[in-house]
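Before the break, one more example. Copy the sequence into your notebook; we will annotate it together after we see the structure.
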Amino acid sequence: FSSGQADGLDAMALLQDTSAKSSTSEPAHLTALNALATDETLSLDARKSHEAEYWRQYSAWHCTVTRLARAVAEIGDSEFWASVCEALSRHWACSPLPEVERIVCLCLGSLDDHASVYQLSLLLLLCEKHGMCHDRCSIFDPCHTDRDRSTLRHLGFMVLDSDAKALTQQVSCMTLFYMPHGDYNLTDDLVWTNRHALHLVAVLGNDFDWVCDPCVQVAEHDRIENTRAPYVQRVLPFIEATGLPDTLTAKTQERLATLVPQASRTIGDRLVDCLDCTLTTFPPAKAWEGIDWPTVAPLHRSLL
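Here is what the structure looks like once it is written out:
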């Protein structure tokens, strides 16, 4: 054999060995590519093409899970996560609220993005915090690729076909909606859909004041006209909200300035506050049962 043939046989043997393990150790999109790369009914050129694509996507997947593991450890040991846990405990103790039975995540973003990996890490920590199996957590974002969806399913999450499945039916149990940077239409739709069950809704996402109007003054919260989120506007007087700034990114920037001052601005300025969010909960139903809800549903629908 030539060295090229030997290398090809070695790679094929490795792929066949990987194939025996991949049904449990790799996401479905890699298992499918592996099967094509070792399918002897295909031509050698076709198999080589699938093999190259398999290793390219395997490298991307390995990079994603490695970044995810590091992000979970980093966030889990941070002051930011401690503040999230403290806010959750305080909100649930004050109302009190039922135990969370379901998590819905919208607007997570592409898993190729740094911010999305950190947001997914926070989602994993939230599931652990509430003792929830991943199959009780639903995820949707229209920007997710087939590879993203395959990776999320491999992690055990329920991947939805559209946000309509999460927003067209009123919740029947305590549900935490994690919506990192969800737009105002989406939040308004969420409030409208659950207007008779808000005591079973918690939102970890954008601040409701910003959702109504990023320029509004606190004294103007009672104004329904001209708001961009009229249903959210109606609940502002009743909500309990705790801002959770991304202190993790701020501390990273501080450390960069100390450790590598010459490069800190070049690399540190690229960091964004991807974990910034607000925890919003509602009081028992009797506290807001007098809200004057319109009789028609919102005309807008979010495209996320």
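Strands lie at 102-106, 137-140, 158-159, 175-178, 201-205, 240-244, 277-281. The chain is about 50% helix and 10% strand. Try to locate both features in your own notes.
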